[in-house]
Structure formats: structure tokens, C-alpha cells
Automatic annotation (TrEMBL):
This protein's record includes keyword Endoplasmic reticulum: no
Keywords, ordered alphabetically: Oxidoreductase
Keyword Oxidoreductase appears in the UniProt entry: yes
PANTHER family the record matches: L-THREONINE 3-DEHYDROGENASE
InterPro entries reported in the protein's UniProt record: ADH-like_C, NAD(P)-bd_dom_sf, Zn_alcohol_dh
Source species taxonomy: Eukaryota, Fungi, Dikarya, Ascomycota, Pezizomycotina
Gene Ontology molecular functions: oxidoreductase activity
Protein name, per record: Alcohol dehydrogenase-like C-terminal domain-containing protein
Occurrences of domain Alcohol dehydrogenase-like C-terminal (ranges): 13-105
Record organism: Elsinoe batatas
């Protein structure tokens, strides 16, 4: 977690836990007096984050995957069953949104090269780039 990203996270979140500095599940259990958290949003897409997320959730909690996974692996289903947890996935857009975006790009309504260049050369300053077809 870069300093820039941490500063951003601290502005928009009540609490930021850096998995490099602390054991996430232990810290969340401590902060919730052993109950666990209601919802985990996994944006990392790595096995360790999924395992930490599952361990962090309370009974009946919800694990939401918003990450793109590069490497397949076996999901540990038993903890989900044992703690009656829910699993949900989200891409933050639907097929119609995607089709409209591709059409707008093809029609030249926005140029993405500047945004891509900015993400590549100044990645510590950005999480995502918002493109507006104005």
C-alpha cells in the first residue's frame, strides 16, 4: 500500500488496515470485540486476501468480490458454510453499460490514451481514472 493510496483511503474510510503491517483478521476481530465484520469487499484478487476476508467475517456476514482474479485456486467453502456467510460478486456495471461505453469510444466521444498514460506514469497518485464523454 503506497503512502498516497493510504492517505486517500484514510480520507474516505473510518479505518484503514494495511495487511503488510498487521494481521488483518486479528485486527478486525480485536476492533469488533471478537464478533467479526459484517461485510468484506475484496478488491485484491489474491488468495491471502480471500482467506483473511473469510476469517474476518462475522457469522452471517457477506463476502463481496470486486477483484479480477488472475490465478485460479480452490475456494475454501467450509468456512462459508460453517458461519452461514454469503458470497457475492460485482463488476460495477452491466452488459448495457459496457455496450454503450464501447460504442461511445468507437464514435470518438472520449480519448483514453491520456488517462492510461497517467495511470502508468503516476500510478501512486491514482486509484482509477474517470472518463466522461462530454
Amino acid at each position: 500500500m503506497t503512502t498516497t493510496r493510504r492517505e486517500w483511503d484514510e480520507r474516505v474510510a473510518d479505518l484503514v488496515v494495511n495487511p503488510v503491517e498487521v494481521k488483518v483478521a486479528e485486527e478486525c476481530k480485536r476492533l469488533t470485540e471478537g464478533k467479526g465484520v459484517d461485510v468484506v469487499f475484496d478488491a485484491a484478487g489474491v488468495e491471502r486476501a480471500l482467506k483473511d476476508g473469510v476469517e474476518t467475517l462475522r457469522y452471517g456476514g457477506t463476502y463481496v468480490n470486486v477483484a479480477g482474479w488472475e490465478t485460479p485456486f480452490a475456494i475454501p467453502w467450509f468456512p462459508f458454510m460453517l458461519k452461514d456467510m454469503k458470497v457475492q460478486g460485482s463488476m460495477a456495471y452491466n452488459d448495457q453499460d459496457f455496450a454503450e461505453t464501447v460504442k461511445a469510444y468507437a464514435e470518438g466521444k472520449f480519448v483514453v490514451e491520456k488517462g492510461f498514460e497517467e495511470l502508468i506514469t503516476n500510478k501512486d497518485n491514482h486509484i482509477k481514472i474517470m472518463i466522461s464523454p462530454d
